[in-house]
Design a protein that fits this description.
The chain is mainly β. The chain has a single domain, classed as Porin (Beta Barrel). It contains 2 helices and 21 strands. The strands form 3 sheets. The protein has a 16-stranded antiparallel barrel. A two-stranded parallel sheet has the order 7-20. It has a two-stranded antiparallel ribbon with strand order 10-11. A hairpin with a 5-residue loop joins strand 15 and strand 16.
């Protein structure tokens, strides 16, 4: 009897949603890996190393709701709310901390407003060979970081306070254009909140755009992001640093896909214009590949972050290697295992993106010291629903 009552209650909720909205979908991903990581050979000596640490990482686990309503005359209303999930420790998340927006779509394309993945971040994820572009092997370890650090670089984060236009596809070509009224809405003094550092200055506004061409097995893409950080002063919580006028990033990639798998080459050039001193520039390259074998695939990529030009510091940069295997238990469930390693030069401290906030991460509160060799093995399961 109790099971019948629960079933009727769920059916009632479903019918109410269907009446209010023509199409609502609940979806998401549950991703968990067991990682064993370490960071050794620090330039400053063994006392700065991180010995073997074991952890469970939720990677890019999330739940989302999206919907479409037909408005007639070829127009549709669209919405989406996504929230990341910390399934490894039950920590509470913040709703819509992932891609979340409302907009309208038609023959002209799609216009949305909200918290969005821009074309630069999207291109980096497209060229990553890991399912979901996540885990300790992800290419966000090096992209756009200008010298090192844990977590994501400024260009591989979502763009909040944003409006975006996505064009239709014409002969394989599509375009994206977006504007952010303020890259950040937190931190600082009262005059520094909501992305402003004074009553007449709005900090960290951003423009971003992308062009994509895809025909058959060939894909070529370009993306550009520019952040106007002039006057951001002491607003360090934006993740962009202090006293910066502008940051920008060019990203260009080409990929070939076939029945055997895929191979791709990605180039990234980040630039920082400080309030005083010379511009800082850095090139990063990633060569990635996937070889399909039965129900699984061997995945591999190698990335190279070059010298940061303009800061007069020698021996910077890093090399990132990944080799792994993913086995498809079904269309929605992937079993995966991989090895990932970052070799930092003496004056760089690159670290993985995912898992750095974990208590057993290789990253500390102040970040790793320079010169460490970061390595890890990861085994886990990813299920999409």
């Amino acid at each position: 009897m109790q099971k019948k009552i629960i079933a009727l209650a769920i059916a009632g909720l479903a019918s109410t949603a269907a009446f209010a909205q023509s199409n609502v979908t609940i979806y998401g991903v549950a991703d968990a890996t067991f990682d064993s990581v370490k960071a050794v050979n620090a330039t400053a000596g063994e006392g700065n190393d991180f010995k073997n640490r074991n952890r469970v990482t939720a990677n890019s686990s999330y739940i989302g709701f999206k919907g479409v309503e037909d408005l007639g005359n070829g127009l549709k209303a669209v919405f989406q709310f996504e929230n990341g999930l910390a399934t490894e420790n039950g920590a509470a998340g913040v709703w819509n901390n992932r891609d979340s927006f409302v907009g309208i779509a038609g023959g002209f394309g799609t216009v949305v407003a909200g918290n969005l993945t821009g074309p630069t971040r999207a291109m980096g994820a497209r060229f990553d060979v890991n399912s979901g572009a996540t885990g300790i092997g992800a290419n966000t370890a090096l992209l756009g970081k200008l010298g090192g650090g844990a977590g994501a670089g400024a260009f591989d984060q979502r763009i909040n306070n944003a409006v975006a236009y996505v064009s239709p596809t014409f002969s394989g070509v599509s375009a994206v254009l977006a504007y952010s009224t303020g890259f950040t809405t937190t931190g600082g003094t009262a005059n520094e909140s909501m992305g402003k550092v004074s009553s007449n200055t709005q900090g960290n506004t951003a423009w971003t755009g992308g062009l994509n061409y895809e025909a058959g097995p060939i894909y070529v893409g370009y993306a550009y992001t520019a952040v106007n950080a002039s006057g951001n002063g002491s607003l360090a919580s934006d993740g962009l640093g202090l006293n910066i006028n502008k940051l920008d990033d060019h990203r260009l990639g080409a990929m070939y896909k076939a029945s055997f798998g895929q191979v791709g080459l990605l180039w990234d050039r980040a630039r920082l214009n400080p309030a005083s001193g010379s511009d800082l520039k850095q090139n990063v390259y990633y060569l990635s590949g996937k070889a399909n074998i039965g129900n699984g695939a061997v995945i591999a990529q190698v990335g190279r972050a070059g010298q940061v030009k303009g800061d007069n510091v020698d021996n910077q940069g890093a090399t990132h290697y990944e080799l792994g295997y993913e086995y498809n238990l079904s269309k929605r469930t992937v079993l995966k295992a991989l090895y990932s390693r970052i070799n930092n030069k003496d004056n760089s401290n690159y670290d993985y993106l995912y898992g750095v906030s974990n208590a057993n991460s290789t990253a500390s509160t102040a970040g790793m010291t320079n010169g460490t060799s970061v390595s890890g093995i990861s085994v886990g399961l990813r299920h999409a629903f």
